């Protein structure tokens, strides 16, 4: 695993690529839209000591529009090519509108959000994916969500989820943004997964939805999960990519996304400042109400 942004592991990748390509090879960056191909070529240029490329990187899909030959990124006569991203219909991200993609796109370091839950409980990742714990050979399981912190989560009893789709998708559970978008994303379907793990202190298995993120599962035993997302979105099981989990557990109910809590904090701060200004002005001269008074009453 590498981070092209932080340049973690890029030197090792350069060594492998140079070894495989030989002095006259051709390197092609090929992959899904927005996967980070251009950023990776730029990082390889920086780390290999070759010439630094300035390919356009952007958090929107479809940035690279044609095949670009990039000179001198790798030593010798190795040639590098950047390519436009491939459109995968099984990725949830390509069904999203721009405002929804902004919530799903991971722009900061990912942080684990972990629940310790028992059979009969469900975790939602916005209105895009849900995991139901249907059977467990042990008392509880650790479920860690790896997805953009801008997406709100919800954990609660599975028996109460039937109203989520109608009442909360598009609102507390975003994306999709707005109820009208829920239907546009497709049919909400369940798939079943049987997984097993052999340790408590780290996750063993990931259940991942293409273009969104994944649930990491930590347990010592067997489990059966129902996993819900929209028809046609790829859901796979793999060995845990990041075995660590958070030691501060999330609590039941809706977890406000960072975007909402930051907005709340900002508006509370404004409110406090306005109240303070109002108090100051009333102690100085208790005169008629001003524009500030009027504004502060709305906080
Ligand atoms: N955190 C993190 N972000 C990355 C990494 N690589 C790319 N990104 C971000 O992902 C977004 C897309 O990167 P690009 O390099 O433009 O992706 P691309 O595959 O060339 O995209 P297209 O040309 O549209 O197919 C940018 O906002 C990058 O900053 C990475 O290793 N870590
Ligand atoms: Mg690109």
From TrEMBL:
Gene3D superfamilies: P-loop containing nucleotide triphosphate hydrolases. It comes from the Eukaryota. Residues 27-101 form the G domain. Residues 144-241 form the NOA1/YqeH-like C-terminal domain. GO terms for molecular function: GTP binding. Residues 265-299 are annotated as: Disordered. Residues 271-287 have a biased composition (Basic and acidic residues). One of its GO terms (cellular component) is mitochondrion. It holds the Pfam family MMR_HSR1. InterPro entries: GTP-bd, Mito_lipid_metab_GTPase, NOA1/YqeH-like_C, P-loop_NTPase. This is G domain-containing protein.
């Amino acid at each position: 695993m590498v981070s092209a942004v932080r340049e973690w592991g890029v030197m090792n990748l350069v060594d492998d690529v140079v070894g495989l390509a030989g002095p006259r090879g051709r390197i092609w960056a090929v992959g899904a839209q927005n996967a980070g191909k251009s950023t990776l070529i730029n990082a390889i240029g920086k780390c290999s000591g070759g010439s630094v490329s300035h390919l356009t990187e952007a958090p929107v899909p479809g940035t690279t529009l044609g095949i670009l030959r990039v000179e001198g990124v790798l030593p010798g006569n190795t040639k590098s090519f950047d390519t436009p991203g491939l459109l995968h219909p099984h990725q949830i991200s390509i069904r999203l509108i721009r405002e929804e993609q902004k919530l799903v796109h991971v722009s900061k370091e990912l942080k684990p959000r972990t629940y310790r839950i028992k059979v009969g409980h469900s975790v939602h990742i916005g209105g895009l994916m849900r995991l139901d714990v249907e059977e467990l050979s042990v008392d509880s399981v650790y479920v860690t969500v790896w997805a953009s912190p801008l997406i709100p989560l919800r954990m609660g009893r599975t028996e109460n989820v039937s109203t989520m789709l109608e009442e909360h998708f598009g609102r507390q559970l975003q994306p999709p943004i707005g109820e009208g978008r829920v239907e546009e994303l497709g049919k909400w379907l369940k798939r079943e997964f049987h997984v097993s793990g052999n340790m408590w202190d780290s996750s063993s298995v990931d259940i991942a939805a293409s273009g969104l993120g994944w649930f990491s599962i930590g347990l010592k035993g067997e489990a059966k999960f129902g996993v819900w997302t929209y028809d046609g979105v790829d859901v796979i099981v793999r060995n845990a990519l990041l075995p660590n989990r958070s030691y501060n557990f999330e609590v039941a109910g809706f977890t406000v996304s960072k975007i909402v809590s930051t907005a709340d904090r900002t508006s509370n701060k404004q409110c406090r400042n306005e109240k303070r200004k109002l108090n100051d002005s009333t102690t100085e001269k208790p005169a008629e109400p001003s524009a500030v008074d009027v504004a502060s009453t709305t906080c």
